[in-house]
Automatic annotation (TrEMBL):
<comment type="pathway">
    <text>Amino-acid biosynthesis; L-serine biosynthesis; L-serine from 3-phospho-D-glycerate: step 3/3.</text>
</comment>
<dbReference type="InterPro" id="IPR004469">
    <property type="entry name" value="PSP"/>
</dbReference>
<feature type="active site" description="Nucleophile">
    <location>
        <position position="93"/>
    </location>
</feature>
<comment type="similarity">
    <text>Belongs to the HAD-like hydrolase superfamily. SerB family.</text>
</comment>
<dbReference type="GO" id="GO:0036424">
    <property type="term" value="F:L-phosphoserine phosphatase activity"/>
</dbReference>
<feature type="active site" description="Proton donor">
    <location>
        <position position="95"/>
    </location>
</feature>
<dbReference type="InterPro" id="IPR023214">
    <property type="entry name" value="HAD_sf"/>
</dbReference>
<dbReference type="InterPro" id="IPR050582">
    <property type="entry name" value="HAD-like_SerB"/>
</dbReference>
<keyword id="KW-0028">Amino-acid biosynthesis</keyword>
<keyword id="KW-0460">Magnesium</keyword>
<dbReference type="GO" id="GO:0005737">
    <property type="term" value="C:cytoplasm"/>
</dbReference>
<keyword id="KW-0718">Serine biosynthesis</keyword>
<dbReference type="InterPro" id="IPR036412">
    <property type="entry name" value="HAD-like_sf"/>
</dbReference>
<dbReference type="Pfam" id="PF12710">
    <property type="entry name" value="HAD"/>
</dbReference>
<keyword id="KW-0378">Hydrolase</keyword>
<dbReference type="GO" id="GO:0000287">
    <property type="term" value="F:magnesium ion binding"/>
</dbReference>
<keyword id="KW-0479">Metal-binding</keyword>
Length: 296
């Protein structure tokens, strides 16, 4: 999707510093010149700027002063100028994207199987093992855990910096926001409520007598499902994939990230960072607003 759009149009380049006030003017000018850039537009003083370039994103990315940008902890994004700039659908992963850490790992730690579950989680998000089978094995380890105990953990969920701002700002400009996670609906419902999402999707754990049975309602919401849910929401809203912003960190997010008009890898695992060219590596989720041209 993104590759097709990049073949015959110019680009929008965005630079975003990890900390406000830490974006050097000389580095901005160097990157602008290297990409045949137009006039610089300031999105946040000392933090974020953008400009247009006649070059395609694929052509200009190698021209950026990458070592200097990395040393200064500056994220750089390049997207086709032909696509809708402000996205009308936000599809976001939950764990380590919208919320801090992995919710299932925290639940498992309280149940005494944290080491085993975390190992399976790591292998899954790195793309080393099949997501659905990994999740089934993790949930089986939680068999017998009281749902009330899980609720105590969920009340301590912490959003990543900029998460609520991202959701609220896009909604204020007419976008629909949906949280799509391979985690449990017990968790997505709480995270979606805190961050203010319009809708949420996750896997449903089967419960008997107030405790987890160790089983999931089938079929498992897997990487392909995440992509399809995003596209289904877009269709229902009269939108296309080009109108979508997808953001996530793990291998199970890759189909969704690749399908969206703008897919952003957020503090991503190595395999995801290698596959997705637009990445937020140093900054917070405010960067996803700058990527759409919002001035803050």
């Amino acid at each position: 999707m993104q590759g097709e759009a990049e073949t015959n149009s110019g680009s929008i380049v965005t630079l975003i510093a990890a900390q406000p006030g830490s974006l050097p003017d000389d580095l901005v000018k160097s990157a602008q010149r290297a990409t045949d850039g137009g006039a610089v537009r300031v999105l946040a003083a000392g933090e974020a700027v953008e400009w247009s370039s006649p070059l395609s994103p694929e052509t200009l990315r190698p021209l950026l002063p990458l070592p200097a940008l990395e040393e200064a902890r500056i994220d750089h994004l390049a997207q086709s100028a032909a696509l809708p700039r402000r996205k009308r659908l936000l599809a976001a992963d939950m764990d380590s994207t919208i919320v801090e850490g992995e919710t299932l790992d925290r639940i498992a730690a309280l149940h005494g199987c944290g080491t085993e579950v975390t190992a399976l989680s790591e292998a899954s998000v790195e793309g080393q093992i099949n997501f659905a089978s990994s999740l089934r094995r993790r949930i089986l380890l939680l068999r017998g855990m009281a749902v009330d105990t899980i609720g105590d953990i969920l009340r301590t969920i912490t959003l990543n910096e900029g998460a609520a701002l991202l959701v609220r700002t896009m909604q204020a400009h007419g976008a629909y926001t949906v949280l799509i996670s391979g985690g449990l609906t017990l968790c997505t419902s709480q995270a979606a409520s805190i961050a203010g999402f319009d809708a949420h999707h996750g896997n449903k754990a089967l419960i008997e007598n107030g405790c987890l049975t160790g089983l999931l309602r089938e079929p498992v919401l897997d990487p392909a499902s995440k992509k399809q849910i995003m596209l289904d929401h877009a269709t229902a809203l009269g939108l296309t994939a080009a109108d979508c912003l997808a953001i996530g960190d793990g291998a199970n997010d890759l189909p969704m990230l690749r399908a969206a008009g703008l897919g952003i890898a957020f503090h991503a695992r190595p395999a995801v960072a290698q596959a997705i060219p637009n990445r937020i590596t140093h900054g917070n989720l405010r960067a996803a607003l700058f990527a759409q041209g919002y001035a803050l």
